[in-house]
Design goal:
single chain, 289 residues, alpha+beta, Heat Shock Protein 90, five-stranded mixed β-sheet, two-stranded antiparallel sheet, 6 helices, 9 strands, 51% helix, elongated
């Protein structure tokens, strides 16, 4: 209880006593204590949750490191026998070349192609394991320079296809340089690979700003005039090992677009595909800015 003391005066203002006012604050005190107890409990719970989260994060980092070490070891252990298969098959083919009949020669060629596909698949799986790990630090990446580097790497393919590449002015992005380069290399390689026979490949790369749900994005679009695909497969193509065409039609492991999706997700973005069979495709990359 709180007590308030006030002078008690007569009609002419003389103090003739003391007026004591009692205020019952029991409810307020109890409420304050309850609030303090709840706050203390929540603080303890939050500290415990933070400690648990810290431990989970440490375990996740250890798991990621173990996964990367395993991927390196597995890739070496898998690639070595594949390399030997390819080497000895080639040697044996050369030694027996004068005695091989057409059917036997085809069998040797099939072994060589299969071992090459296996080697490519191991390389792609190792690359996927790399992009599954986010580097610690982002950096300012000039997409104009990055695209120029990608085009230089693909120079022979572009020249062979006589492809026309148009690149708009692209923005500066805060991201992981090597992963972004792999992203655009995969998309441009696909655009060149799945071009229509007898038609000059045309690839356009554009950029625009957009705001969705309060978040500002840079949308980079890679558009081609290739063979395209049915729109119903627009999500399926990003799944691991998904191929819409036979191995005899187009080479590849079915991992490239999975890598592209993982890179975009590492940047907090989204990748979407729009296509029409026989008319080409557009891959839209939403990168937060």
């Amino acid at each position: 209880q709180n007590f308030v003391y006030e002078p008690y005066r007569d009609a002419v203002g003389n103090v003739i006593g003391v007026l004591v006012v009692t205020i019952d604050v029991t409810a307020q005190v109890l409420a304050r204590r309850q609030i303090e107890e709840v706050v203390a409990q929540r603080t303890t719970e939050l500290a415990a949750a933070n400690e648990s989260l810290l431990q989970i994060n440490k375990e996740l980092q250890r798991s990621n490191q173990n996964l990367e070490e395993f991927a390196h070891a597995a890739s070496h252990d898998l690639k070595e026998p594949v390399r030997k298969i390819h080497f000895f098959t080639d040697q044996l083919k050369s030694q027996l070349s004068s005695h091989l009949q057409e059917a036997e020669l085809r069998s040797f060629n099939r072994i060589e192609k299969a071992s090459q596909r296996m080697g490519n698949l191991i390389d792609d799986l190792l690359l996927y394991s790399h992009v599954s790990q986010r580097p610690h630090q982002k950096e300012a990446v000039d997409l104009n320079q990055l695209l120029q580097n990608v085009l230089e790497d693909l120079d022979l393919d572009i020249e062979e296809k006589k492809a026309i590449i148009q690149v708009d002015h692209l923005p500066l992005i805060n991201g992981y340089r090597r992963q972004l380069q792999q992203l655009f290399q995969n998309l441009l390689s696909n655009a060149l690979k799945y071009s229509k026979e007898g038609v000059t490949p045309s690839i356009q790369i554009t950029a625009e700003d957009s705001v969705e749900n309060g978040q500002r994005f840079c949308i980079v679009s890679v558009m081609d005039n290739g063979i395209g695909f049915e729109q119903e497969h627009a999500e399926k193509i990003f799944q691991m090992f998904t191929r819409l065409h036979g191995k005899s039609e187009y080479s590849g492991t079915g991992v490239g677009l999975s890598i592209a999706k993982k890179v975009v997700e590492n940047h907090g973005g989204v990748i979407k595909a729009e296509s029409k069979l026989g008319e080409g495709s557009v891959f839209k990359i939403y990168l937060p800015i």
